[in-house]
Amino acid sequence: MNIQHYMENIGIAARDASRLMASADTKTKNLALKHIAHAILREQATLLAANQKDLDAARISGLDEALLDRLTLTEKAVHTMAEGLHQIANLADPIGEMNHFKYRPSGIQVGQMRVPLGVIGIIYEARPNVTVDAAGLCIKSGNAAILRGGSEAIHCNQALAKLVHEGLLAANLPTAAVQVVETTDRAAVGELITMKKYVDVIVPRGGKGLIERISDEARIPVIKHLDGNCHVYIDDDADFDKALRILENSKTQRLGTCNTAESMLIARGVAPTMLPKLAAMLISHGIEIRGCPETMTLVPEAKHASYEDYYTEYLAAIISCKVVDGLEEAIAHINHHSSQHTESIVTENYTKARQFLREVDSSSVMVNASTRFADGFEYGLGAEIGISTDKLHARGPVGLEGLTSLKYVVLGDGHVRT
Amino acid sequence: MNIQHYMENIGIAARDASRLMASADTKTKNLALKHIAHAILREQATLLAANQKDLDAARISGLDEALLDRLTLTEKAVHTMAEGLHQIANLADPIGEMNHFKYRPSGIQVGQMRVPLGVIGIIYEARPNVTVDAAGLCIKSGNAAILRGGSEAIHCNQALAKLVHEGLLAANLPTAAVQVVETTDRAAVGELITMKKYVDVIVPRGGKGLIERISDEARIPVIKHLDGNCHVYIDDDADFDKALRILENSKTQRLGTCNTAESMLIARGVAPTMLPKLAAMLISHGIEIRGCPETMTLVPEAKHASYEDYYTEYLAAIISCKVVDGLEEAIAHINHHSSQHTESIVTENYTKARQFLREVDSSSVMVNASTRFADGFEYGLGAEIGISTDKLHARGPVGLEGLTSLKYVVLGDGHVRT
To answer: B145 CB contacts (<8 Å, ≥6 apart)?
Structure first.
């Protein structure tokens, strides 16, 4: 198989399909989504069998436990996929929305219309649910999608692709609106991320290595999330109970998510009274504390934090800790070390809360709330295709709107420029 | 001089300055802008002398007339620069603007805050006024700018840089907020467009060759405008007087701008009656018509349009012309051939106008208005740093808002996720 030729054909078909998707009406798109959800529930046994094939092959090739876990499709996961499609169908259609129409002194009326981006290339690993989530979001936002899942999930992804096509056909939409790349050849990714003519944006989902490689090699804009080195800063004016609750939830509710806190900063003024109790709470959850010398003095169990620790997204039962002068040092530390994902201040002080919100340069900034809230569902986006730590286009959780753009609309009555 | 080292130092200084600019208040930024405007008027003689040096050198090196024309600074241009800064000072400050705060079922309140992008790298040719316009827009939007003007304008750009620094100092803002690259070594551009760590976005302004080269080689997102192959479609239901007026203005008001019409489409139903008169108008303005066979039959003066003509941005007294079946063919032709800049339909038909607006995939779509309106001032943006034909982030004229991003703000009262 000539990969370049194969991918170019996919690109051409996607571009054509994207034109039809852009003009599809809301009812039609929702019909497709509901059909797919229905087909997924109906074919549950087929999907689980396909997944079993993938799992068997993965075990033989020695995939590690964490990846096997992500690859595994359960009955519950199948139902969640179908439920997710119904949720997307229930979201308002962003496409065609018009806003901000104003008359200008020249007499023309100028506003903006929300439009699809066109063709979205999505590259992901293991999790088969991404196939359905991404397809659903792209259909609803009037885009065409080219999905390139991990080779380890190829059987399940192909089975899902069939059901997605069934739903598109039932709604009289082009099946090329969602194409699943059928080759596991890595060269296909190389083509996908450089086909400027056919692909408008790339969304990579997976480990930091994958995302860095793709973003280095892509010749197409990438919406990406590298890592989540999230901070909780406990200010001099923090309420202790809120600090305890927020730190506990931010760090311990789930260890492996990108919005989990990986570092805590605490103001020197309250460190002697608060830090030992906060540390005891963390330790009771089995969290290892790696701290600065002052932390180590106040918390005997704490280990020494290296230079690298403050840059690290552990995704594990470890947190770095630093005692700081106060707000200014906390902001400077965060802006220097964080991955610009999510940071939270715990304080009762209005002025300091306001300064933190303004000056911390991350995609989500919070006052007296757990970093774990940084999520498309929690923010009311309904679903997310990823969380962007970039600044251009989409920042933070990326939902339907992140897959759209705005064009200018000018209404005149024979107006010309003078 | 070690260019890599030199550019890295510029990048580090810009990144540091961007933090201070992000937290600068509106009054301070406006003070800097007004100071710069004042200094430019005061130093008019110095600026004209520096420009004369550039012009002398350019004549010796044999720069062509068009470039010499763009390079030339007049007294009037100096006043326009100063006036532009006052206009930017008068625009509302986009930074810190907060919107869409809503309570979520979890109890948190989620909204968005507008923030600067950070460091903007601007690469441009000849025109010294870009130095001041770009500096003004970046200052007002709380960004730091690295400006790399053409080597042919180096004396004038350096003289302007001095005045920009004077204004920044007067407002107690860091002079590194606007840095003009002082070397004419081309390697400096190579560094600028790959310094991911220090530069957040690149805005190239100039010829298509320059922009294509930069966007191919950049490792940083680029806000770019490649070309403007703009269309006017005259529908079956067009009002003839409006068609005449709009076509005349779109094509003949200025030949060399990106929003000038380069192609006209006309519905077969009205071609026999309207096209000869429209062509006569164009010919009376000295415009050459290159058309399809039907055009050539109806307009004896028309020349044959090649395959390439329909893709061409002439920037000259030429227009391509095609007779089409009607709306569907017009939309398909435009979506295939245009550069996605600006397209206008002339029609009295509501349904067709609506379909054109929805289905034409360009950064500006218009009904009964001249393509010449596609411009930041005309749209009410106050000023523009360029017109984007990309879809991600900014599309169409890019003003202050295009130099900003949105971050999520979460307000809680000790809320945690369950």
So the answer is: B14, B119, B120, B121, B122, B134, B135, B138, B139, B177, B178, B179
